[in-house]
Amino acid sequence: EVQLVESGGDLVQPGGSLRLSCAASGFAFDDWQMSWVRQAPGKGLEWVSAINWDGIDQDYSESVKGRFAVSRDNAKNTLYLQMNSLKSEDTAVYYCARKRVSDYDYWGQGTHVTVSS
């Protein structure tokens, strides 16, 4: 059974940092591109970042480029999102998702990030 379990969400002040983790199981993690997607309160899903199978190629939305860094440890079957210089508009539920060619087939349950003073 494919499982994705996010963790690391918290309440943080503007300008602060957090690192999210996504523990994967039930599939060959290093065969798959992975993504982070978020949903702010009252808004739709927003793609945040993606990373290819070996971690060499990464991509970011314009809203987080230069502040967030995606990485993966295939030996630990874990995906990460380092978030720096957090802003109130980064407040959202963050999901990791397994990417297929044109969509995502598995999602985690999400982890809450709140940026507020």
Describe the overall structure:
With 117 residues, this protein is mostly beta strands. 0% of the residues lie in helices and 51% in strands. The strands form two sheets. Strands 2, 4, 5, 6, 9, 10 and 11 form a seven-stranded mixed beta sheet that branches. The protein is globular and about 40 Å long. The model has no long low-confidence stretch (mean pLDDT 97).
Features of this protein?
single chain; mainly beta; 117 residues
Give the uncertain stretches in residue-range form: none
Strand content: over 45%
Specify the helix fraction band.
under 10%
Number of helices: 0
| Structural class category | mainly beta
Task: Give a short overview.
This protein has 117 residues and is mainly beta.
